[in-house]
Design goal:
Elements (H helix, E strand, L loop, with lengths): L1 E9 L4 H15 L5 E9 L2 E11 L2 H8 L2 H11 L3 E10 L7
Antiparallel strand pairs: 1-3, 1-4, 2-3
Length: 99
């Protein structure tokens, strides 16, 4: 399994625009083959920071995600938003197990 996690920090004046771009991206991504989890959450106490968390079946699924039309639309929207910082990392995890 591939896990992607990190944060985006958005300028205060662009928070609503970011949320408008994130919503459709999440909805479309959750329909993708190989996507087990895809979440953006706004950090309480730092409302301009969004946490990203994703789980993918494999690297091929993640790479296919990068080539989708909704990812291209999201990138276009982000180009119009003041992103103050971006820290996103990918790592390989073992199989998913219920505990």
């Amino acid at each position: 399994m591939i896990v992607v996690t990190g944060t985006l920090e958005i300028a205060e004046q662009d928070i609503e625009a970011a949320k408008a771009a994130i919503g459709p991206m999440v909805a479309e991504t959750l329909r993708e083959s190989g996507c087990h989890c895809y979440e953006f959450s706004q950090v309480i106490g730092a409302e301009n920071r969004f946490r990203i968390y994703e789980e993918w079946a494999d690297l091929a699924s993640l790479e296919a995600h990068f080539a989708t039309a909704h990812m291209a639309a999201f990138r276009t929207a982000l180009a119009q938003i003041a992103v103050l910082s971006r820290s996103i990392h990918r790592f390989e995890a073992g199989p998913r197990e219920d505990i």
